Amino acid sequence: MKIGDLVTLSSRGKKLESCRHSRGWDVNKLVGLVLHIEERRWGVIEPQVVYKVRWQGKGPEGRMRWHCDHWYRCDLKYVSKVR
Fold first, then answer.
1. Is the CB of residue 57 less than 8 Å from the CB of residue 46?
2. How far apart (Å, rounded) are the C-alpha atoms in residues 1 and 19?
3. Chain segment 6-25, per-residue pLDDT in tens
4. Which residue range is the domain that position 50 belongs to?
């Protein structure tokens, strides 16, 4: 996945607690643009790659219930790749 790719939530992403209850957005019509990719280290475990996505219209804030604006690769799937 690269910056500029169009993505939507995968089936695993749709099951996240932050996405279960739609708040004015339709989970089946959700499309977003990957804006930023970052590798984060959480203590001694392996680095985790996180993706920042700007959703078209209103969309979920992030993976966690609190305002954390990142997603893991397993939460997203391609709609269209950048060329």
1. no
2. 21
3. 999 999 988 888 777 667 77
4. 6-80
Query: For residue 58, what are the contacts with CB-CB under 8 A and spacing of at least 6?
Result: 23, 24, 25
Per the listing, tokens 């269209």 go with 80
pLDDT digits (tens, 9 = 90+) for 44-64: 677 788 999 998 888 887 887
49 falls within a domain: yes
Q: Is residue 1 part of a domain?
A: no
Q: Are 3 and 32 in contact (CB under 8 A)?
A: no
Q: Is the sign of the CA dihedral 26, 27, 28, 32 positive or negative?
A: positive
Cα gap 57→78, rounded to integer Å: 18
Domain count for the chain, please give it.
Answer: 1
User: Is 73 within the bounds of a domain?
Assistant: yes
The reply to whether 39 falls in a domain is yes
